[in-house]
Amino acid sequence: MHDKLDIARALREIALLLQLKGENPFKARAYDTGAQALEELTDDLGALVAEKKLTSVRGVGAALAGQIAELFQTGRSEQLEALRAELPPGVLELSQVPGMTLKRIKALHEALGIGSVEELKQACLTGKVRGVKGFGAKIEATLLEGIYRHETRDERVLLADALEVAEPLLAHVRGCEAAAQADLAGAIRRWEETVDRIDLVAAAEDPAAVTDCLARFPRVAAVDDRGASRCAVRFSGGLSGELLCVPPGDYAAALLHRTGAPAHVEALRALARGQGLSLDERGLLRGGERLPATTEEELYRHLGLPFIAPELREGEGEIEAAAARRAGERDDGLIEEADIQGMVHCHTVFSDGKNTIEEMALAAEVMGMKYLTITDHSPAAHYANGVGVDRLKRQWDEIARVQERVKVKLLRGTESDILESGALDYPDAILERFDIIIASIHSRMKMDADQMTRRLVNAMRLPVFKIWGHALGRLIQRREPFACRVEEVLDAVAGSRAAIEVNGDPHRLDMEPRWIKEARKRGIRFVISTDAHSTGGLHNLRFGVGTARRGGLRRGEVLNALGPDAFQQAVRP
């Protein structure tokens, strides 16, 4: 088992099974920490195993290093196999059902012997679950709803997980001698939050040589289908992929077709027909003669349009918006990663982060950032070691000490909890002393829409400047956004001293592009954040930027595209 992600999955399974057994939670957490360390690892895992240097990785102790080495060298873990034998099959699947907490899984297993989703479904349908102590009819109904959602979910993976495969795959295909060009396409190139397959387009005179190259990629588990110009594969882990290889002259049109959502491509075809042209995967034709185009930009220009960024190609009005710009004007003003001058929303060891203030600062410097906000959790987030008033002075003193040793400007901030009333969980006198305030909801997320709307409106109307953090509280594929009247809250933001975060955590990507578009209509300003809990988490920036671009955000609408002084002035409480 040489793939670090496969080993990380095995460690997470051990962690979950240990929790189900009721083992020491710190022991289980160590496996989760080790899994995250592997996922973020940039060094060569094989070399670390061979040189017995796994313990040099932060979060990996001697015992965990032994487990990782065993998995790497043998593909097996005696501990994992023993844990699987102790618990009924299906327990891991049960944990994927919305509403099935570890406590509930254990209780239902002990009371009813439930060990699979099907057994849980039958127990709910026959009314057995409500008879178990601590459950009842309401929870039984909630679990049935969760089972339905579990059974009807589509097999998609997070964008970040797909990129773990897609980017090395792209490098592999580009390294093929026969490939003149190659690019990712489809949902990945549009930066959609979840992906059902990896699409690539390549250009070559000898397509068979390129599809052979694809089939030799180490993570390809099976070749499902293969033709003269295409190859469909499955990767270890279950994700599928497809490569289309075309002659170099067809490359731009093939990439255009394979990137855009069907609605975007159909709208382009309709536009072409209206101009006496026809558009297909081979190119743009007039009377059977292909118009010269070696880039997507040239194809758009032939249609009288400026270039449309891949992130916008959803068929949601982007063609009409592009037509309003001058044809050939490529710069649409969309925010780019290079525009970001400061890292916003970063946690350290003062709350639930894994790195010190200095380690975070130095990592931000390496990435070329000019400022970094230290926004650890606040007192109400006791589960995350929130920083109470009594610890603030120590944190601020540490920020001052580190500032003397680093070039990046450090801003002292907080991720302050929005309480049930809409108040923040620091006194006003303390809030006014921060450089920046992220205001977020971490509790009581099941309030009804009226209650949640009132809570958020009250928070946004507070006199201090605040940034609405991970706005709707979703965790992609794990937790739905909480109920509220979003437009009403956006109106409150627009009329207050407030901005909105585009959270780059790949599990959040919140707020969503559709609400970013609504906020832009109101002139609301944004920050693009990382929600980093480690130095590796700073690289979440690109996911925040991708989500912001899908929402149409321009450079001038993003506060952390400003320099340090202008940013600090803009967000001052």
TrEMBL record:
It is an enzyme of class 2 (transferase). Keywords: DNA replication, DNA synthesis, DNA-directed DNA polymerase, Nucleotidyltransferase, Transferase. Residues 342-420 form the Polymerase/histidinol phosphatase N-terminal domain. It catalyses: DNA(n) + a 2'-deoxyribonucleoside 5'-triphosphate = DNA(n+1) + diphosphate. The keyword Hydrolase does not apply. Residues 1-314 form the DNA-directed DNA polymerase X domain. GO terms for cellular component: cytosol. It holds the Pfam family HHH_5. Its EC number is 2.7.7.7. This is DNA-directed DNA polymerase. It comes from Sorangium cellulosum (Polyangium cellulosum).
